[in-house]
Amino acid sequence: MIGNTAARDGGVAYIESSGDVSISECTMTGNTAAQAGGVACVYISANLSISECTMTGNTARDGGAAYIESSGDVSISECTMIGNTAAQDGGVACITYSRDVSISECTVTGNTAAQDGGVACVYISGNVSISECTMTGNTAARDGGAAYIESSGDVSISECTMTGNTAAQDGGVANIVLAGEINSEPLVVFRKPLSQGLSILWGGGQELALGGGLCGRGGGRDGEQQ
Q1: Residue ranges of the alpha helices (H) in 2-99?
Q2: Its GO CC terms (predicted)?
């Protein structure tokens, strides 16, 4: 899927579905949408799976590659995402209303958002899991160089390598607003000086379990750097 354009949503595809949707083993390059989802704009009431895809140089207002509204679960796995751009939120993906979101075994490099979430901007009521990912050189002009997450569930970040991600305001790696708990075990590797605003996690009054150079603030409880 190369060089497709939409005057509104979904440069390649606009999908509305009450059943499950699976997108796999695709290459998506240089696609553009004026509003949501440079590659795909997806509104579903079931589950969405995106796996083994390469997304490069796609552009949209929200979700440089994908804009997703789902009342089910969203899974993104084994994908390579390079140089995607959002004029507002989510350089690669903007995900809203979902139950649980899982991002695993992805390589994510050089994506940009003019507002929040250089890689992903996630607004959901469920749980968020990011595991075994490499995120390098992603940029947000506001919050969350790699990810901006608002969730009323729990957030887990494990076995990830995050290097050289930047945000002009909060969270060079991630800015997280949640009502549940965050667990960054067993391993989160950050290679960036804390003086550059590595990561700020907002805990909504819950205890934060911090590791690997995270800086946390949580409802009157001081976060500790390790």
Answers
A1: none
A2: extracellular region
Number of domains observed in the structure of the chain: 1
Q: Which domain holds residue 101?
A: 5-221
Q: Is residue 226 part of a domain?
A: no
Q: How far is CA 220 from its chain centroid?
A: 27
DSSP string, 150-208: EESS-EEEESEEEES-EESSS-SSEEEEESS-EE--S-EEEES-GGGT--EEE-TTSPE
User: pTM of the prediction?
Assistant: 0.84
Q: In the predicted model, is pLDDT for residue 152 greater than 90?
A: no
> 86: left (phi > 0), else alpha (psi -120 to 50), else beta?
beta
Q: Tell me the pLDDT band of 222, cut-offs 50, 70 and 90.
A: very low
The two tokens of residue 30 are: 């240089």
Cα separation, 38 vs 12, whole angstroms: 7
